[in-house]
Amino acid sequence: MNAQPLSLPQATYLVAEREVTTRVRSKAFVISTLILLIGIVVGIVAMNFFANREESTSVATTGEIAATLSDLPGVEITEVGSSDEARGLVESEEVDAAVISSADSPTGTAIVALTEAPSGLVEALSQPPAVELLDPDGGWSPIRYILAIAFGVVFMMSAMSFGMPVATSVVEEKQTRVIEILITSIPARALLAGKVLGNTLLALAQIVLIVAAVAVSLVVTDQTEILAGLGTPLLWFALFFVLGFLLIATLFAATGAMVSRQEDISQSIAPIMYIVMIPYFLVIFFNDNPLVMTIMSYVPFSSPVSMPIRLFFGEAGWWEPLISIAISLLAFAAVIGIAAKIYENSLLRMGSKVKWREALRK
Amino acid sequence: MLEISGITKRYGERTVLDDVSFTVGRGRLTGFVGGNGAGKTTTMRIALGLLSKEAGSVSLDGTELTADRRRGFGYMPEERGLYPKMKVLEQIAYLARLHGFDKREATAKATAILTQLGLEERLNDAIESLSLGNQQRAQIAAAIVHDPDVLILDEPFSGLDPLAVETVVGVLQERAQRGAAVLFSSHQLDVVERLCDDLVIIAAGTVRASGEREALRREHSSNRYELISSGDAGWIRDEPGVQVVEFDTGRAVFDVDGEETAQRVLRRAVAEGSVTTFAPQHPSLAQIFKEVVR
After folding, report:
1. Beta carbons within 8 Å of A277's beta carbon, 6+ residues apart
2. A235 vs chain B: nearest CA distance in angstroms?
3. Torsions phi, psi of A359, nearest 5?
4. What are phi and psi of B48, to 5 degrees?
5. Interface test with A, best of B65, B75, B98 (most A CBs within 10 A)
6. pTM of the full structure
7. Which candidate from B49, B81, B105 shows the least CB-CB separation from A176?
8. pLDDT of A172-225, one tens digit each?
9. Cross-chain residue pair B98–A185, CB shorter than 8 Å
10. ipTM of this predicted structure
11. How many degrees, rounded to 5, is the angle at CA B43 between CA B38 and CA B44?
12. Cβ(B208)–Cβ(B292) under 8 Å?
């Protein structure tokens, strides 16, 4: 009673399933994921806490000024009889500052402090000039910078932390020689596709968990308006991420196949590492350069980082991400073809690193 | 029947296999012997499609092998290897699933074969925690868990203790009885001699002898006889047509020039004293091996 031989998709599924279960069962993986998620939640909640913390300044002042100061937020007033009494309290460090009436000052009041005047108080008692902005949206935008770093970091870290295991697992199969048994059981393409898909699923799952952690933390800290603004770019990011990661994982698998020992991996995958890191640096340095960002949003490896940012700021037309996705898909088809060749030509070669020329022949 | 015909393999200028041809019959164990670097592993890898060849063909039951058909084969590579951190049962079941069995069936088959090989207490241990001998058993399980009808095993007995050899021999014979074609290589000539039905001897990339084991032994027997008698057999030196190989008072090993000479020697021996042994000597596999590879 012989079983039916597996079809290519079935074999691919089995390989992917093994990749996922092996990884999910590893303690190191579970613990590092948990630490990452806890870090995100704690980070967002803590930032919110410190940003909203009421910093109250204790101020000693006389009766008539106390009435005007009482409207200021974060000011705790101690009413005293005279200016000298107020000075005394500052000297004895019972209050942070004293506000006294002063004929020399244009506002009619003066601040007395020990070493440094509390900046909030200075600001509150100053009279700002009128400001008119002609281009309020132009110039350096902190949100843009933060988004660029966030997408850049998430993409680079995920590509590395999930791309490396693809290469490692290919080399592990070569190093332990289990490859000969696998390759006589299923087609090499199924092995390659299964590895890439399994690890892409894992990476995507981690991205979803990160997004969920961000969303939950924002809801908990009542920052839902940021969440609403981020929703669409996050979805685009996820979509572009999957495509970009499929490409990168395929390249990791192919270059991993070219060596036989774990020690040689770093040498073999160096070119892929550059491909992963370059978009990160470009987006950090050029996130406000429209030309560079537009080009990047069409290049397969950098589009996951730059297209969502352009979409968030309404700089890209609705058709632009679609064209970019089409380009990514074409690139993926081409890369799969080349990677499968490298993979099949290199899998059974043991010893020194397989040369690119040999890996790509026929 | 697995038929290997006219296989030639070159690495650059060096010819490692030259017109290698032999057959592996169904229901039979075929032993593949040869020295280091003789070409055993290369031949097996070509039969499995893992290596390309310059000339020749590999066919099964008269049809040239395709990649799909080869995937039904069972293979034990020379370089052993399984996933070190995977559990034994899980691993063997996974390999069965890669051959198309569903999960439940694969687990049942893996459990059965591992039990038969004596690993029933190690099912949930990681491969890397097993002794080398037990890893070897797991490797054999990996080759046969999917009931292949063609088995190609590279040195399946190396590293096994005598009891384990017996177990593995039993498993292989059972597979052959069910109609599988089994080809295995080995350095252990005594095991091969005892176990296999057919033999292929390879040296320096060419097949030096192949065929049924007994036929080979007859073919290579050299009219050698052994005589053990109670008296002094010194007279044998003077018999015409006799070449004495070994002599020790009552015992003589000698070659004769024909059947009649042998009968004459026997009659003389009986006349001279009481004969305890008079028998033709079949060469051992080791002797045939030495002779053909020379």
Report:
1. A156
2. 36
3. -65, -25
4. -85, -5
5. B98
6. 0.78
7. B81
8. 888 888 888 998 899 888 899 999 999 999 888 888 888 888 888 888 887 777
9. yes
10. 0.80
11. 120
12. yes
